[in-house]
Design brief:
Number of helices: 0
Distance between the termini: 50 Å
Largest sheet: 2 strands, antiparallel
Number of strands: 4
Shape: extended
Strand order of the largest sheet: 1-2
Helix content: under 10%
Number of domains: 1
Order of helices and strands: EEEE
Length: 84
């Protein structure tokens, strides 16, 4: 597998990855244009549990001011407003 160093990427522009990409650690995507989206997924997406050391972090999606969708058996709540 080829290793890409940060100095090989133009951080002020865009780049395209063909093939698989793995990021170890946290990743934050910051939207800087209100007319576009910070993340677009074309195709399928999976949110899966992670093994961190000896601990298992269950899969979940948290949306600020709405709540969390999570793994079955977890007590997660999404606030859909007063209409439901």
């Amino acid at each position: 597998m080829a290793r890409v160093r940060f100095r090989n990427i133009n951080p002020s522009g865009s780049f395209e990855v063909n093939g698989a990409m793995t990021v170890t650690g946290n990743t934050t995507l910051i939207q800087n244009d209100v007319s576009g989206s910070a993340l677009i997924v074309s195709g399928t997406m999976e949110i899966v549990q992670a093994m961190i050391g000896v601990e298992i972090e269950k899969a979940k999606l948290t949306i600020q001011n709405l709540g969390t969708l999570g793994d079955t058996g977890s007590f997660n709540v999404i606030d859909l407003g007063g209409f439901f």
